[in-house]
User: Fold this.
Amino acid sequence: MELRLLPFPLTKAVPLAISRGTTAAVEHLLVEVEQDGLTGIGETGGFDTGHREFTTAAIAAELQALAPRLRDLAPQPLQALEPLLASLSPPARCGLDLALHDWWGKRLGVPLHRLWGLDPQLGVPTSVTLGLGSVEAVLARLQRWWTQLPATRIKLKLGSPEGLDHDRALVEAVAEALDRQQQIGGPAAELQVDANGGWDLEGARAMVGWLADHQVALVEQPLPPIEDPEADSAAFAALELDCPIALVADESCWTLADVVRLAPYVDGVNIKLLKSGGLAEALLMAQAARRLGLEVMLGCYSDSALLNGAAAQLLPLVRWPDLDSHLNLVDDPFAGPTLEADRLHPGVSPGLGVALTTELAGNATARADRSGGEGPWPLPGA
Ligand SMILES: [Mg+2]
Assistant:
């Protein structure tokens, strides 16, 4: 198979601030594999969880180095490619895993959710995200979401650098706004919070009971992730008994092994394809989490409708979808998952159910510029 990489920009309509910083725009990679006249597409890009960081340039270099070895291999059987995929970082593996799954689904002529036997009508509303900021800015962001979709599930970012008092002020203001909306005839909305590892144990213990009193449904990653798995599990264990609301691991949970490790101490896990290394691991994680009595959240970074469309193939297994990043882009070149009110459904075309809707012409220029430089960008097949 031929492997091709193409960088493309993604620009947020509203920049997103979380406890670790603010993102307004990113560069992601389109990963294509071509064999027998069929092209499978995948997406990857850099991200940072506080304890692990990947750059898009380093991911591109990894995939580029792999291209000559792929030339003598076919996309099927996927199993034969497993050792090669295992040698990659999670986001590099994700890009290739998605392209291979897309090729496989296209070859068979069916969307992945159908191959997996999932019912695409089982989807529930996706949350939309309110980043950190002043109370006024956060309420304005909520209003903006309401002009776009019903937004009955709100994820509020906490772990503010201004401290717990500011976090509490944000929760109170958003909870009041949700109440007001319901009083004037709007739908009831569920409030979730995500500290992105921005609290210490003492702060987290103080916050979780207070959040329960404010009808917050769940708290995601209250404590920073720790590289040592035992210490990371111990941190969740130390909080779990005092936590009256659902406790969800995100930055601490990357693989099936993490799901199993964290299962005694959490109520749910946030699966993201860039962390898991793509759909093969994510499907295992979602199925195992459910068997272990955990709820599944399915999340995203600054991803386009390609990554979120791939994730959407798993939506029938998910209690808390959180795939809103592509709904906040001004230049998304892809379309796939469909939105019905605030409920996402997987695309029904074969493979990932995603299509490129605009030429990546501007990005082809970026590719040409870079191919003459010292960077990792003289791309195979380009
Ligand atoms: Mg999170």
